[in-house]
Amino acid sequence: MTDQEDFSSLLREFENEHAGITKQAPEIGDKVQGTVVSIQGEFIFVDLGAKTEGMIEIEEFTDADGNLSIGIGDPIEIAVSGKDEDSGTLLLGTRHARQARGSEGLRRAFEQGIPVEGRVTGVIKGGVEVEISSERAFCPASQIDIQFIEDLESYVGERLAFRITKFEGGRHTNLVVSRRVLLEEERRTLAADTRDHLEVGAVMKGTVSSIRDFGAFIDLGGIEGMVHISELSVGRIEHPNDILAVGQAVEVAVLRIEKTDNPRQAEKIALSIRALEKDPWQDAQSQYPAGTSVTGKVVRIQAFGAFIELAPGIDGLVHISEMGGERRINHPQEIVSVGDQVQARVLSVDMEKRRISLSLSDARKREANTTPDITAEQTRPKQSFGTLGDLLKASMNKKK
Prior knowledge:
The chain is of the alpha+beta class. It folds into 4 domains: 26-92, CATH 2.40.50.140; 102-184, CATH 2.40.50.140; 198-276, CATH 2.40.50.140; 284-376, CATH 2.40.50.140. 19% of the residues lie in helices and 38% in strands. It has helices spanning 3-17, 102-112, 180-197, 284-287, 362-370, 374-379, 388-399, and strands at residues 31-40, 43-49, 52-57, 75-83, 90-92, 116-124, 127-132, 135-140, 159-168, 174-178, 203-212, 215-219, 224-228, 249-262, 265-272, 293-302, 305-311, 314-319, 341-350, 355-360. It is elongated.
């Protein structure tokens, strides 16, 4: 090996050993990867490589029953929320909030962007008052949450994480804080993870974030998609509230993803719950063979007949010619009304066109035949007394 080759080999070895040292230090909001090396007290400690450590509040990975979902040796990917300047340790996770001590501790938290924990003590004009390390802080109403909050009283007594957005020392410390910036950072981190799995055809879990007359919005994790009312169920529903509630966990299929020019909403995502349900027509042929007696509800009436819901997602049609028996009827409304429960008989099933032809039961036809023909009574010519001229002419004829 020549001296030049020996030098090159040593250089490569040095670069490999020190590759991480020259990397730019992670900033707040950046995602980092590491390995859990210890769990002590309220914190989980993570080795991030390049002689860098991070710490996470243990609550970040603790469920409602107190079970810890992570252990020593597990790999982890998580966002940076701040930095402890004394130790150089990165603060990781979305829930991380330090107990700042005194005015100096608050100043350092402000300069370093470290979240701090505070308790909402009351509602004041324009926002809420927050107690942080025995100091009073102000959180504007627009900064308490991502969404507009009408009833700020609901936050009183809550201990929450905030970021200090304004710090003025002196005899009386002037503090302004925001919870919204932390929530937005969390959503951006979640959105990045969600986009890694977001594609047409993907099945994803989400939470109902809001409900409208035309459908429901689903939070997929930092990104919202919409389920149109027609994609909520194979059955007929009047309003999304019939089957969904805000906060409800749901599973959805991604139908479409459309890019937009709106920086606040990079894509429009069309979702479906219906696509994950079993096709109700799959067993229709065997479930409704010709001659079967069925019961259903009248859901729609047209001039040519009435549609009967036999099961969620399956309607049958009773043609007007199969309604009146021996009596001729002019409109299905003479026999049935929307909402009526009726008995019928299956005439045929067309699986290709997804059509079921029905005939009203004989009992219903007999009932129709005994009902007075109101239309005929209304159209029968009535006796006329004639015009005034006719009456005068008749009177003159009598005198003659």
